[in-house]
Amino acid sequence: MPPTTFDETYEPRAWTCGECRRILGVVMRDTSRVRRLWVFSFDRFGDDLPATSMLRNPPRGLFRVHGDYACDGVECSRCGAINEWAGNKESFDKLMERYPIKEKG
Ligand SMILES: [Zn+2]
Fold first, then answer.
1. What is the CA(95)–ligand 1 centre distance, in A?
2. CA-CA distance, 49 to 88, in Å (whole number)?
3. 38-54 core/surface letters (b: 16 or more CB in 10 A; e: else)
4. 28-37 pLDDT tens trace
5. Ligand 1 centroid distance, CA of 38 (Å)
6. Phi, psi for 17 (deg, rounded to 5)
7. pTM of the model as a whole
């Protein structure tokens, strides 16, 4: 697969464990405006992410999953919680805003 072309207008966002809030990965958006998940090789403490330029050109070993669209779960290595990932929800919601389902009347 060719490397992702990133949407530069979208700031990378920390993706945290729903239970213990540890940072498991980062969400970035590609030029098709689809949010995708990168999972760090090692969970991170605190709120600080590496610099955006590093996230978009990661050195070897930074991530163990690159650009996942959706998955049943990423297991937190600290608390064991399974965190579901569905990157298309945002674009789906946008679509629904644009084309609302009309109520029957
Ligand atoms: Zn956790």
1. 32
2. 23
3. bbbeebbeeeebeeeee
4. 999 988 899 9
5. 16
6. -65, 135
7. 0.80
99 C-beta neighbours (distance < 10 Å), count: 8
Q: How confident is the model at residue 93 (pLDDT cuts 50, 70, 90)?
A: low
Specify whether the CB–CB gap between 25 and 11 falls below 8 A.
no
Tokens of 37: 């998940």
46 CA from centroid of ligand 1 (Å):
13
Read off the tokens for 20. 């213990």
Span from the CA of 57 to the centroid of ligand 1 (angstroms)? 26
Distance 64 CA to ligand 1 centre (A): 17
Q: How far is CA 89 from the centre of its chain?
A: 11
Q: Where exactly are the structural domains of the chain?
A: 13-98
User: Minimal CA–CA distance to 62: which of 47, 46, 80, 43?
Assistant: 43
**How many Å lie between the centroid of ligand 1 and the Cα of residue 30?**
27
24, 43 contact by CB (below 8 A): yes
